């Protein structure tokens, strides 16, 4: 069968109950990205999220971002590069330490929120972060937006990169994500989300935000874990893809 990796950002709550809600998604995905305590999460949620991932056979990675919990890491911070890299290193090492306690081997790093968006278009920032990850965490793959600056930097460094696509976001004609402030940049209709996921999984053409044809391959598709109906969407996505002969796995 064909296959596609489905990932979700988890561990962004504060309590055991939040982790239990996250765990409802895990039977339907193949990879999760766990908050490292800066934009969200804490030692309890990291430990429980990693344990839940182990129990469900879901590959786990680190999900660091700007250290700004008040705004959930969704606003760009004017940090010195050295300060930012130090924060990212602290976040990833914190999760690595917890993972060692739980008996989980981390697989990758995916940046969060505003930092994820900032490296899409800032080649210098992408270079700094990729160089840092390749040196400090050589065993961890980088997950990032397909066709953006982080992918280009990873290619230059020869570092493993997981190309990510989004089932519920419109793309600009240059294959970058349409900013959320644009009308209809987020796809609300489930059937349209499923169809875009199928086309991304198979590298088939789909429509851009301005209805131009786009076509490019991805390795993983993001399912937003903070959506109120995330478990139902995850199940629908799994069933839809299987009905088309595509398995959800790496």
TrEMBL record:
It holds the Pfam family LamB_YcsF. One of its GO terms (biological process) is carbohydrate metabolic process. InterPro entries: Glyco_hydro/deAcase_b/a-brl (IPR011330), LamB/YcsF/PxpA-like (IPR005501). This is Lactam utilization protein LamB. It comes from Microbulbifer thermotolerans.
């Amino acid at each position: 069968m064909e296959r596609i990796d489905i990932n979700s950002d988890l561990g962004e709550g504060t309590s055991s109950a939040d982790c239990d809600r996250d765990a409802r998604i895990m039977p339907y995905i193949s990879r999760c990205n766990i908050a490292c305590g800066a934009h969200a999460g804490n030692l309890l949620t990291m430990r429980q999220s990693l344990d839940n991932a182990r129990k469900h056979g879901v590959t786990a990675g680190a999900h660091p971002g700007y250290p700004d919990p008040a705004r959930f890491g969704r606003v760009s911070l004017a940090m010195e590069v050295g300060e930012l890299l130090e924060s990212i290193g602290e976040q990833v090492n914190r999760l690595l330490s917890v993972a060692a306690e739980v008996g989980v081997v981390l697989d990758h790093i995916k940046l969060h929120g505003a930092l994820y968006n900032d490296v899409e278009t800032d080649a210098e920032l992408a270079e700094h972060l990729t160089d840092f990850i390749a040196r400090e965490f050589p065993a961890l793959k980088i997950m990032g937006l397909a066709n953006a600056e982080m992918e280009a930097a990873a290619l230059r460094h020869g570092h493993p990169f997981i190309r990510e696509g989004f089932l519920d976001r419109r793309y600009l004609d240059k294959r970058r994500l349409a900013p959320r402030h644009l009308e209809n940049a987020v796809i609300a209709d489930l059937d349209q989300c499923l169809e875009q996921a199928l086309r991304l999984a198979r590298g088939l053409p789909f429509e851009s935000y301005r209805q131009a044809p786009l076509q490019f391959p991805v390795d993983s598709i993001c399912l937003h874990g903070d959506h109120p109906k995330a478990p139902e969407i995850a199940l629908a996505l799994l069933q839809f893809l299987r009905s088309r002969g595509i398995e959800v796995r790496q």
